[in-house]
């Protein structure tokens, strides 16, 4: 029973933890996880004469802070406390950067921010982007065997992880240097801004942002290493998008705009409008205001939430039976969204990276002729709190609706959808091989747990799974990307819908790992466990 | 024409396989779906409200440091 149950779990961990670092050397926790990542080709001893790229991280390992594996298995209650605490720390970290006036900053990346839990002008300027990018980068490098990593050896795993952390910090350094020199942190309001920030003031941006990237990486590592639930990135991203959604929906805090004080929550603003203005205008304004969240965005996000829950629960059940326990027949579910939100996260990570680089390069080389082909950003004349992409290559793969030319307006949704769909599907197609969750790997796990598919011989299991999984992964990616194209393509939702979509899909993955943990640890006696029991 | 066929072959095949797979899937029934929506929806919103409450701590902090 237990074996079957743990076999059953691996879907959760496989699909969910796919872009997490394959960690795990604590015997209780890691054994299952590390097995799913090891591939037979990688086990061979790497005694090549040349220096491996992986080993170059050795000098940094002792310098980088690292989260130790837990000495004993962390209980269910403790895991919840750790997860909530890390999320709270992350949420509280969005403090304004020193020397930056957040109100006078124009933000070109609003529509990309929610999934990556970032906020303009704060220490979370890049949010999860550096660690996500580094994670994808190294996993892909290892998957394509450009970097040889033997995930069975503890030192290799540690080196791999140190590289990821190092890369994350490096990305944060590079991007903060780029944005600083591009004048991103300078106030846009010429009338009230004083003298420009001195050079040492600019240096502090870089220090603050790279330090925050390191802290984020450590928070993610803490959750990944078994102190908390699920892949850390997904936990933080879910919490952030939920917070963003709640703020946009029922946020009672206000900020001052050109039209006076306005509530952050669209619903609260509607009530406020009804009390102050004529009825028609009140409703019209609640649906169309641009500087803060409006009800249109809320409805699109709610629709995305519904669709995500529906498709997140579609699956194909494969009948399996255990060779040890004769009478046990069970099903192994293969989810339609096999990779979960990952294809979309990857697509948006690509877009976010391209936009940061593009914005910085076009600003720094603003006289160069190629700059206008990359992208053109114009300050929004009504709110002057955002830059809108109006032209260039990046415009056509963006969800920015601002353009005067009707041809641009017609073409952009199509090119944006095409880009999202193609990148997501291609990613999903190769990801199961890269992350070690392909049919072959799954078949190996089945064999280790003495599970066989009903109606198939043991040798054919890998082939059969290999037929189903890529189809599931790519179709799932197509559906998620399609929903995104519809929700975001018209540029009405401004990133909220995609944030909610990724948030809900990640929440489903997390919920799965919470539930299996609950069942396995016999969480009946725990405090939080009783909450789940009532369901 | 032949070349065009070759070009469209892969996406068409992909869509065909995909729709077959979706048709084969076990989908949540209406009752199940409504239950899921309620559970996940409330959970998500609750999580958001808690996150929002945490972020409210920012107001005094910002007041202090700016």
From TrEMBL, chain A:
A cellular component annotation (GO) from this entry: membrane
Organism for this UniProt entry: Ogataea philodendri
Keyword Methyltransferase: no
Membrane-spanning ranges: 80-100, 120-144, 165-185, 205-223, 232-252, 298-316, 336-361, 409-428, 465-486, 492-511
Family annotation (Pfam families): SecY
Name the UniProt record assigns to this protein: Translocon Sec61/SecY plug domain-containing protein
Keyword Membrane part of the UniProt annotation: yes
Protein family per UniProt: Belongs to the SecY/SEC61-alpha family.
Disordered as annotated region, ranges: 1-21
Keywords, in A-Z order: Membrane, Transmembrane, Transmembrane helix
Gene Ontology biological-process entries: protein transport
UniProtKB/TrEMBL annotation, chain B:
Highest taxon, organism lineage: Eukaryota
Gene3D superfamilies, per database record: Preprotein translocase SecE subunit
Membrane topology: Single-pass membrane protein
PROSITE patterns, A to Z: SECE_SEC61G
InterPro entries: Prot_translocase_SecE_dom_sf, Translocase_Sec61-g, Translocase_SecE/Sec61-g
Parts of the chain that traverse the membrane: 36-54
Chief localisation class: endoplasmic reticulum
GO MF term set: protein transmembrane transporter activity
Compartmental location: Endoplasmic reticulum membrane
Keywords assigned: Endoplasmic reticulum, Membrane, Protein transport, Translocation, Transmembrane, Transmembrane helix, Transport
Any one of the GO BP annotations: intracellular protein transport
Gene Ontology CC terms, in alphabetical order: endoplasmic reticulum membrane
Annotated family: Belongs to the SecE/SEC61-gamma family.
NCBIfam families, alphabetized: secE_euk_arch (TIGR00327)
PANTHER family cross-referenced by the UniProt entry: SEC61 GAMMA SUBUNIT
Name of this chain's protein: Protein transport protein SSS1
Lineage, highest ranks first: Eukaryota, Fungi, Dikarya, Ascomycota, Saccharomycotina
């Amino acid at each position: 029973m237990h074996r079957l149950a743990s076999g059953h779990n691996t879907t959760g961990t496989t699909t969910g933890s796919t872009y997490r670092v394959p960690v795990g050397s604590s015997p209780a926790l890691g054994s299952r996880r590390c097995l799913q990542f090891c591939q037979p080709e990688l086990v061979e001893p790497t005694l090549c004469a040349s220096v491996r790229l992986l080993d170059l991280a050795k000098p940094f390992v002792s310098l980088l802070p690292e989260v130790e594996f837990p000495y004993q298995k962390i209980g269910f209650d403790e895991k919840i406390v750790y997860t909530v605490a890390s999320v709270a720390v992350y949420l509280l970290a969005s403090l304004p950067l020193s020397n930056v006036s957040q109100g006078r900053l124009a933000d070109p990346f609003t529509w990309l921010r929610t999934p990556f839990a970032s906020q303009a002008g704060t220490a979370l300027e890049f949010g999860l982007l550096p660690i996500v990018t580094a994670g994808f980068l190294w996993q892909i490098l290892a998957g394509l065997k450009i970097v040889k990593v033997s995930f069975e050896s503890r030192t290799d795993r540690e080196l791999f992880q140190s590289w990821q952390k190092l890369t994350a910090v490096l990305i944060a350094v590079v991007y903060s240097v780029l944005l600083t020199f591009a004048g991103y942190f300078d106030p846009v309001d010429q009338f009230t801004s004083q003298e420009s920030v001195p050079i040492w003031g600019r240096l502090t941006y870089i220090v603050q942002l790279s330090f925050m990237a390191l802290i984020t990486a450590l928070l993610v590592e803490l959750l990944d290493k078994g102190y908390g639930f699920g892949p850390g990135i997904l936990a933080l991203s879910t919490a952030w998008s939920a917070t963003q959604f709640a703020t946009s929906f029922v946020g009672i805090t206000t900020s001052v705009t050109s039209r006076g004080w306005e509530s952050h929550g669209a619903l609260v603003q509607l009530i406020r409008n009804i009390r102050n203005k004529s009825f028609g205008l009140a409703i019209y304004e609640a649906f169309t205001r641009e500087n803060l969240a409006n009800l249109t965005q809320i409805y699109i996000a709610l629709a995305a939430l519904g669709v995500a829950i529906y498709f997140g629960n579609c699956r194909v059940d494969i009948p399996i039976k255990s060779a040890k326990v004769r009478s046990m027949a069970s099903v192994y579910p293969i989810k339609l969204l096999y990779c979960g939100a990952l294809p979309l996260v990857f697509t948006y990570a690509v877009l976010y990276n391209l936009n940061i680089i593009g914005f910085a390069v076009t600003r720094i080389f603003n006289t160069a002729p190629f700059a206008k082909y990359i992208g053109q950003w114009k300050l929004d004349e009504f709110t002057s709190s955002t830059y809108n992409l109006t032209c260039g290559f990046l415009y056509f793969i963006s969800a920015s609706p601002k353009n005067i030319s009707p041809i641009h307006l017609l073409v952009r949704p199509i090119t944006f959808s095409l880009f999202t769909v193609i990148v997501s599907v291609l990613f999903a197609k190769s990801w199961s091989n890269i992350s070690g969750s392909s049919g072959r790997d799954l078949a190996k796990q089945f064999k280790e747990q003495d599970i066989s598919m009903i109606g198939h011989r043991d040798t054919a299991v890998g082939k059969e799974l290999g037929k189903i999984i890529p189809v599931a992964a790519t179709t799932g990616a197509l559906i998620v990307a399609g929903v995104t194209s519809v929700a975001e393509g018209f540029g009405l939702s401004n990133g909220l819908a995609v944030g909610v979509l990724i948030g809900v899909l990640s929440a489903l993955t997390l919920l799965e790992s919470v539930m299996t943990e609950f069942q396995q640890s016999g969480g009946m006696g725990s405090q939080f466990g009783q909450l789940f029991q009532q369901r | 024409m032949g070349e065009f066929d070759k070009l469209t072959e892969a996406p068409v095949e992909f869509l065909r396989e995909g729709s077959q797979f979706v048709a084969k899937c076990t989908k949540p029934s209406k009752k199940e779906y409504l239950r899921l929506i309620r559970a996940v929806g409330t959970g998500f919103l609750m999580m958001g409200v808690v996150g929002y409450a945490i972020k409210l701590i920012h107001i005094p902090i910002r007041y202090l440091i700016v």
